[in-house]
Amino acid sequence: MKPNIPPFEPGKKRLTTSAMIASIAAEGQATKPAPFGHALVEVAKSRPDIVGMTADLSKYTDLHIFAKAYPDRFYQMGMAEQILFGAASGLAAEGFTPFCTTYAVFATRRAYDFIHQTIAEEDRNVKIVCALPGLTSGYGPSHQAAEDLALMRAMPNMTIVDPCDALEIEQATAAIAAYHGPTYMRLLRGNVPLVLDEYGYQFKLGKAQVIREGKDILVISSGLLTMRALEAAKELEKDRIGVAVLHCPTIKPLDVETIRAEAKKSGRLVVVAENHTEVGGLGEAVARDFLLNGIHPVKFRHIALPDEFLLAGALPTLHDRYGISTKAIVATLKSWL
Amino acid sequence: MVDRPNKTLADRAYHIRRNAVRMGEVQGQGYIAQALDIADVLAVAWFHAMTYRPEDPDWEGRDRFLLSNGHYAIALYAAFIEAGIISEEELETYGSDDSRLPMSGMAQYTPGMEMSGGSLGVGLAIAVGKCLGLKRKGSKNFVYTLFSDGELDEGSVWEAMMSAAHYKLDNLIAIVDVNNMQADGPSKEVANFEPLVEKMQAFGWFTQRINGNDLEAVRQAFDTAKAHPGAQPRIIIADTLMGKGVPFLEQRDKSHFIRVDAHEWALALEALDAGRPA
To answer: What is residue B142's predicted lDDT score, i.e. its pLDDT?
Structure first.
């Protein structure tokens, strides 16, 4: 399908595609630099089994900080994702705990079979940490991992984590290091927004948590969309619309007990919001669980990326266009009430 | 291994072939032609070159043996039986329901099986990681990795060859079985990989090419690979004959999955027995 590009208008003001390495933070938003890289350095102090590996993307995944701190524990595998994950399996089999980084598209799409066979099936303790999850790049489908959760969810024995902000990335890095088993973690890199500190949040692997209460709408979300849902909730509060946000950073295994309990609280519009295609992510997982367990919210809606190849362009434009900017979410939630 | 300490390598190869044919008979089919062609290499690996403890397949001080071409599991199980890692009685379960000996080798099914093969082209990548891991631990053990000439079609194999040379993995000994047969026909016709020696040398590997069914040549090649002083990975390119040791299978039209009629399994065992080394 050909992308729908409007006719060229000379001299028109346009936003430009930001560099891949640019921060996702909004202007003026509080941030922390490279939370994953710094957290991994900290965890690795007492864990000599931890090694870092990448496929030519250490600087773009914040792993360069680990490489600088522990040069002899860092393996540059070159631009070869199959070898990255195959070799990680071998190192794990010898008792090490590799943290492997690349972009989400290259791990989940290009190296899928290697992760499936050498890590998940062999049950190797490898941590796959991937930048540019969902729609966090304006480069077009080559770099937009709109379907990464669907692919990884379909793989048995894979734990999946989608952190929201810098604080949670730090906490989740320590938590997945402590957990023994194959793990896929979505990564926000560079200057990462700091959001959850305001809520006294503490990540627990496998647990969904209510970040804020609200009487009218329950948003069930993960990752970047929890950040957006919290911002939308603040906006809607001005209109006396109460929005609860149930954050589900562990996509698999999913904390269905907490999700069901929240959904059962009567009368609220239930919305699953995710930075992911509508196919095969958190929304479908929650909908299936509700149907199988006789849970029928008054209204059930889904904020997700469309099942199509997404456009290239400036990220703020794309987030507006595909309905995952704060502004778009506010408008969408209002329209559903 | 414990009960037959003085057997010759030729006798080991004979028993590996015999165990494999008996497993083929259980299935009534299978990759028996490959098992017969690789038996001499396995005899040298498991009864001359490698250090291991049959009663403790996970012993830290063992040499690692990775089977990338998972369908060769029939041959490796045959060697495991000969080594005493699994019992001879278990052979009758090969490829059957609830067996520890599935048709395609998997790490979590069988004692001594280091990896899950079968998705061809993965073994050498895992080997790179294991070699890096052993070096981190200061281990002097080797990582042996067997793969097939058909796997040379997979780009990941060449990525791993680059990586192994880049990291100067002198604890890696790869063996490629050049029997010139893959699923759709002769390997060199499906996707020509020659000249393989020159390619491997250009990739920075210490390279030997031998007749993989000449036991003495195989033994020398393993010794030379282990002793080579260079800081580089090693490869043994073993040209082999499918069906080796069973003359009517050696002469049969070759295919990836060779036809063996029901009555021929007994004949194959007879042929092996007739050719048994003195």
So the answer is: 98
Residue of A75, A80, A86 with shortest CB distance to B122: A86
SS3 B6: coil
**Contact assignment for A93 to B133 by CB distance below 8 Å:** yes
Q: Model ipTM?
A: 0.95
Q: Is B126 in contact with B119 (CB distance < 8 Å)? A: no
Interval B226-239 mean pLDDT? 98
Query: What's the CA dihedral at A302, A308, A311, A312 to 10 degrees?
Result: 100
Backbone φ and ψ of B172, nearest 5°: -110, 125
Q: Could you give phi then psi for residue A315, rounded to 5 degrees?
A: -60, -45
- Per CB-CB distance under 8 Å, the chain B contacts of A92 are 129
Please give the backbone phi and psi of residue A276, each rounded to the nearest 5 degrees, phi first: -170, 155
CATH number attached to the domain at A31-193: 3.40.50.970
- CATH value of A206-336 in 1.20.810.10, 2.40.50.140, 3.40.50.80, 3.40.50.920: 3.40.50.920
By percentage, how much of chain B surpasses pLDDT 70? 98
- Give me the mean pLDDT over the B109-136 stretch: 97
Evaluate if residue B1 carries a pLDDT over 60: no
- CB-CB: which of B119, B121, B129 is closest to A90? B129
User: Has residue B2 got a pLDDT over 50?
Assistant: no
Contacts for A331 with CB less than 8 Å, ≥ 6 apart: none
User: Which residue, among B131, B128, B125, B115, has the nearest Cα to B157 in the 3D structure?
Assistant: B125
Cβ A123–B126 below 8 Å, yes or no?
Answer: no
User: Which residue ranges in chain A fall short of pLDDT 50?
Assistant: none
* Structural domains in chain B plus CATH codes: 9-274 (3.40.50.970)
Report the pLDDT averaged over residues B85-94.
Answer: 96
* Res. B28 pLDDT band, cuts 50 70 90: confident
Query: Are the beta carbons of B32 and B260 closer than 8 angstroms?
Result: yes
- Residue B67: name the closest of B93, B38, B95 by CA: B38
What are the φ and ψ backbone dihedral angles of A293, each rounded to 5 degrees? -110, 15
With CA atoms as reference, the chain A residue closest to B114 would be: A93
pLDDT of residue B110: 97
Residue boundaries of the structural domains of chain A: 31-193, 206-336
Give the pLDDT mean for B18-31: 91
The rounded percent of chain B whose pLDDT value lies above 90 is 91
Cβ contact, residue pair B133, A91, below 8 Å: yes
In contact, B58 and B112? CB cutoff 8 Å: no
- The torsion angle over the Cα atoms of residues A199, A283, A323 and A16, rounded to 10 degrees, is 80
Distance of CA A16 to the CA centre of its chain: 24
Taking the Cβ of residue A117 and every Cβ of chain B, the question of whether any pair is shorter than 8 Å is answered with yes
Strand pairing report for A243-247 and A209-212: antiparallel
Distance between CA B85 and CA B87 in Å, rounded? 7
Q: Is B63 helix (H, G, I), strand (E, B) or coil?
A: coil
pLDDT tier, B123 (very low <50, low <70, confident <90, very high otherwise):
very high
CB environment A18-27: b (16+ within 10 A), e (fewer)? eebeebbbee
What pLDDT score was predicted for residue A21? 66
CA distance B130 to chain A (A): 4
pTM (predicted TM-score): 0.96
Token pair 């006396």 is found at: A240
Stronger pLDDT, A234 or B184, i.e. the higher one: A234
CB A35 within 8 A of CB A191: no
